[in-house]
Amino acid sequence: MKAPKFWYKSLTLISLTLLPVMLLYYLLTKINQMIKSPYKSKVPVICIGNLTVGGTGKTPTTIVLVERLVSMGYKPHIISRGYKGTELGPLRVDTKIHTVTQVGDEPLILATFAPTWVSKNKSNGIKVAVKEGADVIVLDDGLQNPSIYKDFSIITVDAKIGFGNGFLLPAGPLREPINSRLKNTNFLLSIGSVKDQNKFISQYKHKLNKAKHIQAEIVPIETGMNWKGLRVLAFAGIGNPEKFFTSLHNLGATIVATKSLNDHQVFNKKILSRLKIEATQLNAQLVTTEKDAIRLPQEFRTNILSLPVRLKMKDWAQLESAINILLKG
Q: Which of 21, 124, 209, 329 is deepest in the core (most CB within 10 A)?
C-alpha cells in the first residue's frame, strides 16, 4: 500500500471526512492498551519503532544498533514478527534455509548481523531468545504492541516528511498521538540529509523537548561500484522509494526511468520480465534496493544490481551512554 497524498498535506476535505473513523481507531487502540498485561523480559528490551505508517528507517537503525551492542560486548538478539511471512515462530532465521515467503524480507537481512527470531507472538520469541543466550533484546517494530514491556524505546522518523498532517489513521499517517508517545520515549531519531534535518527541527521544535533528539542519515555503502553515468531503470517496493532514487542520483547514475511499487511487493516473473524488457528498450541497467533484492527470484538476481545502504549516526555519545546505563544498571 502506498501512502495517500492527503496524509502529507496540512488539511484536506478527505482527512476531515475521516475524523470520526480516526476517533474510533483511537478509542479501540486505547481499549486494547488497557486490557493487555505487558510481558516483562528477564533481560532489557530495546524497541525500535515509529509513529507513522511506512518506511522510516527502522531496519537500518536496528542493524547499526546491534553492531554497536556487539562492539560494546553484549549479545543482542533481534525479534521480528516477520511481516508477510508464513512462519508463526518462534523460529531462528537461517539465511541458508529460510525464504522470504517463510520469514519475510527484513529478518533475512537482519539475520546477517545478529541472531534473529521471527515470532508472531513476540513474548514467546523473547523467551526463546533469552534461553539461547541473549543478554539484550532488540525489538524490530512493536512500539504500539502493548503486550511487551519496553525498557528503552527509539522512535525513527523520516526528517523529510516528518509526521504528516498530524492526524491518526486513517485521516493521517500516525499510529498514535505524537505528544503522549514522545513523553514515554528515550530517543527520537530523525533520519535524513542536513537540509531535511534543519526543516524537521524548524517544524517540530515545540515537540523536540519531549524526548532526546538525535540525528542520522542513510548513506550508500562503498562497494567499488562506479555508478557515474550508468543508465539505470530503478525500481523499489519500499516505504519511501524516492529516497532510493535520490541516492542513485547523488551517486551520479543516469536515471532513465523509475518504478515505485508497493511496500514489500511480491516480485513474480511477470513483473520482472516486464521490467527487464523495458530496461532493454531503454538500454538501461535494472537496479533495486538491498531489501527488494532479497525478494527477487533466483533466476533474476544475476542481472539486477542492488544498492546497499547503512545508517550513519551524527553522534553516538548520548545514545551509547544511555544504553550503557540501562544495561549495566
A: 124
